[in-house]
Amino acid sequence: MIRVENLHRHFGGFRAVDGATLEIAPGSITGLVGPNGAGKSTLFNVIAGALPPTSGRVIMDGEDITGLPPHELFKKGLLRTFQIAHEFSSMTCRENLMMVPSGQAGEKLWNTWFNRKQIRDEEAALLTKADEVLDFLTISHLKDEKAGNLSGGQKKLLELGRTMMVEAKIVFLDEVGAGVNRTLLNTIGDAIQRLNKERGYTFCMIEHDMEFIGRLCDPVIVMAEGKVLAEGTIEDIKSNEQVIEAYLGTGLKNKEPA
Predict the structure, then answer these.
(1) Where are the domains positioned within the chain?
(2) Which parts of the sequence belong to the ABC transporter domain (predicted)?
(3) 251: pLDDT confidence band, cut at 50, 70 and 90?
């Protein structure tokens, strides 16, 4: 699905990503972990087109997508979410979802004059799909709630829902569990697993909650100092001495589950 080849992203003399090479297999839920400053989010930003690489390549389904802008990658089915959810706070949850698909008929002035039926039909279909997504995520009771009024976890669910409004192939999740209570985190995890198993989504997620990573992800990739340090199952990672050293000796091996 995704192959990253010797990827570099430098900021002056600082090498945020320093020769990272990795693969994300189709149909997988791949975890990306590492200490703060390891280069995880920068790697996501380069893959998703928010930052150009200094050098290296990103391949998706055999196609070189290096440096393509986010809107082009969106059309190819590559989407990402952010650690801080990016909702339209003054719009309802349903309206947030209906905004996602590009190229809607109502975006063209000509159609507002001469193709009103097409606009109505398209909006009705989007409304139905938005309600199906909200029901899938178990937040249908919030469909008419302003998105700005949601809790942090509910906003993360809504952001996940936006990926369901288009034909997503691979979704990059940046700390989907940050600031989310355990109950909602379990709901988010259930939704990710269902999307993976029932709809064929491929996921790659940055996350610091190792219990959450262990529940969802195989394989797990560890980054440190801009490089890929290790890859394997969660059990492999927890017992890897290099990984423990990267976490300053306190980390995975000795950390009690949350």
Answers:
(1) 2-87+167-248, 89-149
(2) 2-250
(3) very low
If you count DSSP H runs as helices and E runs as strands, how many of each does the chain have, helices first? 10, 10
Q: Distance (Å, rounded) from C-alpha 245 to C-alpha 251?
A: 8
Q: Per-residue pLDDT tens for 128-168?
A: 999 999 999 999 999 999 999 999 889 999 999 989 988 88
What's this model's pTM, rounded to 2 decimal places? Answer: 0.85
Cis peptide before 219 (omega within 30 of 0): yes
Residues 32, 228: Cα–Cα separation, whole Å: 10
Q: With contact defined as beta carbons under 8 Å apart, do 253 and 64 qualify?
A: no
Other beta carbons within 10 angstroms of residue 16's beta carbon come to: 22
Work out the burial of residue 197: count CB atoms within 10 Å of its CB; fewer than 13 is exposed, 13-18 middle, 19 or more buried.
exposed
The class that CATH gives domain 2-87+167-248 is: alpha beta
Give dist(CA 151, CA 181) in Å, integer: 10
CB 38 within 8 A of CB 130: no
Taking the CB of residue 77, how many other CB atoms lie within 10 A of it? 18
Q: What gap in Å lies between CA 39 and CA 67, rounded to an integer?
A: 18
